[in-house]
Amino acid sequence: MADHSHDCFYVTRPEMFYPFVFTDIMGLQKNTEGGAGVGDIKLAMKGHVKDGYKFRGECPLSEDDRDYNEGPTLNDKVHVLVCVICASTVNILSDEIIRKMRDVRLAASDMGIPQMAILTHIDEACPEVKADIRNVYKSSYLKEQMEKVTVSLGIPLYCIFPVKNYHSEIHIDDNIDTLILSALKQMIYFGEDFVNNLKTC
After folding, report:
1. Residue 18: strand pairing partners
2. Do residue 198 and residue 107 come from a single domain?
3. Pick from 151, 89, 79: which is nearest to 115 by CA?
C-alpha cells in the first residue's frame, strides 16, 4: 500500500481486551523515486505522520506539510516495528535495501521500539512446507532464510516468525492460523512492554 493506513483488530482473552492497530506502509525500494523514504518511516515511528499520508520517496514529509503531526501522543507512535519479508526473496535482497532496513531498525532501537520480522509465503519458498505446513520448523531451507535475516538485519531468530499466506484456500486452516496468531501474540506482548516501559519512565 502507498499510504499510511490503519486496520483495527481486537484480540481477547478471559477478562482482558487488546485493541491494536496495524499501520501499513509501502515497502522500501532501491531507488529514491519509489517506495517509502527512510526519513518518513522514522517520522512515522515517532508519530509525526497523520493517517492517509501518501508516502513519496522523492519528496519526504516536512514540518510545513499538512500531514505532519506536530504533537504526537503515545497512540500516534509506533509500538512495534514489523519487517515483512517474502521467504523467496531473502536471497536476492539488494545491499541498498538491507542498508535502508538496518537504518530503520537501528532508529527504532534508539527510540526503544521493539522489532520483529515476519517471513511470508513460506509454502512457495519451500516444497517441504508446501506439502505439509506442519513441517515449517523442520525445514532446513526456512531455517537458513531466517538466519540470513538475522545476519543481514540484526533481528534475533526468536523475533522472526514464518507464516503462510491465505490465497487459494476456501476454508480456515488451523495450522495456518497457528503461525499467524503466534506472530500476532508476540506483537501484542512487545507492544505492551513498550507502552508499560514508557509509562514507568
Report:
1. 11
2. yes
3. 79
**What is the C-alpha separation between 32 and 41, in angstroms, rounded?**
13
123 pLDDT above the threshold of 90 = yes
Percent of the chain with pLDDT over 90: 61
Whether 62 and 89 share a structural domain: no
Contact 123, 130 (CB under 8 A): yes
- Dist. CA 115–CA 173, nearest whole Å: 27
With residues binned 3-state (H G I as helix, E B as strand, rest as coil), the percentages for the chain, rounded to 5, are 45, 20, 40
* End position of a domain, from candidates 45, 75, 105: 75
Q: What is the pTM of this model?
A: 0.84
The three three-digit cell numbers of residue 15, written as one number = 477478562
**Domain end among 21, 53, 75:** 75
Of 109, 122, 116, the residue nearest 82 (C-alpha): 116
* 129-154: average pLDDT: 95
Sequence-ordered list of residues with C-beta below 8 angstroms from that of 146, at least 6 positions apart, any chain: 119, 157, 160, 162
Spatial CA neighbour of 80 closest among 186, 180, 151, 160: 186
Structural domain that includes position 130: 79-201
- Which among 117, 122, 118, 145 is positioned nearest to 133, based on CA atoms? 122
Alpha-carbon dihedral 149, 152, 156, 159, rounded to 10 degrees: -40
Kindly report, residue by residue over 49-70, the tens digit of the pLDDT. Answer: 998 888 876 678 889 999 999 9
